[in-house]
Each structure stands twice: as C-alpha cells, then as structure tokens.
Amino acid sequence: ASIAAVIPAAGRGRRMQSATPKQFLVVHGKTLLQHSVDAVLRDPRVEHVFIASDEQNEQAVAKSLPNISFVAGGVTRAESVLSGVLHAITQGYTHVVVHDAARPGLPAAVLSAVIDAALSGDNGAIVAMPVRDSLKRSEPDSDMISTSVSREHLWQAQTPQVFTAALLADAISEMGVEHPQLTDEASAMAYLGYHPRLVMGSLKNIKVTHPEDLELVTAILAPPGR
Ligand code: CTP
Ligand code: MG
Questions:
Q1: In the predicted model, what is the mean pLDDT of the chain?
Q2: Is this entry keyworded Magnesium (predicted)?
Q3: Cα 89 to Cα 172: distance, rounded to the nearest angstrom
Q4: Cα separation of 46 and 172, whole Å?
Q5: Does residue 224 surpass a pLDDT of 90?
Q6: Mean pLDDT score, 165-190
Q7: Residue 41 C-alpha to ligand 1 middle, in angstroms?
Q8: How far apart are the first and last CA of the chain?
Q9: From the CA of 207, which ligand is nearest?
Q10: Is 40 helix (H, G, I), strand (E, B) or coil?
Q11: pLDDT at residue 56 greater than cutoff 60
C-alpha cells in the first residue's frame, strides 16, 4: 500500500463565527491546520498530504515541505475530499487517510490503529466513539422530548477515515458531492454497500466547531511539560 492523507480545509467555519476560518486560527504558535498536518504525518506510512483549501494559503502551513500539496477545495466537504482523493490517485497512491483540518488533537496511536484496520480489506475503517450521553428526539421547531433513543450500538464518527483511494472516489462520485447524507466518507462507502470497521477514537480528537471548543483544544494541544 502507498498511503496519502487528504485534509479537507476549505470550510468557512460558520458555527465558529470568527473572521478567520477556524482551520487558520493559531494555537500554541501553529494554525489548527498545521497541527492536523503534523498529526497525520506522525505515522511514517503516510507519505504525502493533500490539503484541499480555497485559500491556497501556504502561509498556514509553516514548513511547506515537499510532501505537502495544496489542491482546490469544494463547495461541500465531500467535494473538497474528492478533490484531494483524485489528486492522490493521479500521483499513484493506493490508500487515503481523510482527516479534518479542524481535528488538530488526533493522537498518534489512534491514527496508526485506523490505518492498520483499513489495510486488511476493501471496507476501510473509521475512527469513532461510542455515544456517551442519553439521546432524545424532538419534533421540528419544538424543545419538547418526543422520544428517548437507545444509545446502544451507536457511535459518533470522527476522522481519520481510511479507504482504498479508487473505491472512495467512486463512492463519493456515485452518491454525489451535494447529497445531504454524505457527511463523511463512511456514508459514501456504505452507499456502495461496503461496511467500514469502527476503531476507538479519543476525546482529544474533538472537531473544533463552536467558539468554546477553542478553550478545550488549547488545553489538549498544550506542549508537554507545562
Ligand atoms: N470543509 C471543506 N470544504 C467545505 C466544507 C468543509 O474542506 N466546503 C472542511 C472544513 O474546513 C473542516 C472539515 O471539512 O476541516 C469539517 O467540516 P466542518 O467542521 O463542518 O467545518 P466548516 O464547514 O468550516 O464549519 P461550519 O459547518 O460551522 O461552517
Ligand atoms: Mg461544515
């Protein structure tokens, strides 16, 4: 296998409400994007990183190394991912590790485990966490509980999500980059009938989404010895 990472980094960060898109915010001297790039390169099997970004903001990645390329971002996350995956295929990579720019705290052991799980077949593997809170359903435009939902066997998907590059490109193209249910790579693979494996994630791997997440990720990314 020859493995590339694809990092979707073309979002606007609407929920974050900051002037700068969240992936370009600086924590402990590096952008969140740079933290995420460094995180995926901690597994030596990852040979190259394709960053899908509208900004083409190479400034955001301080050490612009030969193993990092910027490619065009898309209107949807799926379109950004597909852009990176197609570039990876063109450059001869057989597998892709898709990882959100907004998840800078990815532990190295989690990355290695999901790559291990994905390399043993065509189904691929994703990082996920068992749901820990009780789940409630409401009706549209209501704050009243209509039903409680069992959390048994329910997982919250994170990234990385690791697949054979050609299969993932087919899956995203078939499902369509505008499909409302195409919120992660596993959804596209499932659309083609594959059953990706679940690999235990980490609370440190939070997706920076709302302003208060910045406080959490600042603690998570704190350099050791402080
Ligand atoms: N992303 C992307 N291209 C898009 C939309 C999102 O590459 N058109 C990326 C984001 O940059 C982020 C990751 O996908 O790294 C996860 O998406 P999300 O957390 O939803 O980020 P945003 O879409 O930027 O945030 P929001 O949904 O609040 O606007
Ligand atoms: Mg979004």
A1: 95
A2: no
A3: 14
A4: 22
A5: no
A6: 98
A7: 21
A8: 39
A9: 1
A10: helix
A11: no
What distance in angstroms lies between residue 146's CA and the mean position of ligand 1's atoms?
Answer: 30
Using one digit for the tens of pLDDT, what is the confidence trace for 70-108? 999 999 999 999 999 999 999 999 999 999 999 999 999
Give the model's pLDDT for residue 66.
82
- Burial string for 190-221 (b: 16+ CB within 10 Å, else e) reads bbeebebbbbebeebbbbbeeeebeeebeebb
Q: State how far the Cα of 90 lies from the Cα of 86, in Å rounded to an integer.
A: 6
Q: How far apart are CA 51 and CA 93, in angstroms?
A: 15
Ligand 1, residue 209: give the atom nearest the CA. Answer: 19
Coil, strand or helix at 81? helix
Closest CA to 173 of 81, 107, 52: 81
Answering whether pTM is above 0.90, one says yes
- What domains sit in the chain, N to C, each tagged with a CATH number? 3-128+156-220 (3.90.550.10)
Best mutation site among 98, 100, 184, 209 for ligand 1 pocket (most ligand atoms within 8 Å of CB): 100
Q: Do residues 20 and 59 lie in contact, with contact meaning Cβ atoms separated by under 8 Å?
A: no
Pocket lining for ligand 1, CB < 6 angstroms: 8-16, 23, 52, 73-77, 80, 100-102, 207, 209
Measure the CA–CA gap between 100 and 39, rounded to whole angstroms. Answer: 11
The per-residue pLDDT for range 116-135, each reduced to its tens digit, is: 999 999 999 999 999 999 99
Whether ipTM exceeds 0.90: yes
| DSSP per-residue string spanning 8-28 | E-----GGGT-SS-GGG-EET
Collapse the DSSP code of 142 into the 3-class scheme (helix H, G, I; strand E, B; otherwise coil) and give the result: coil
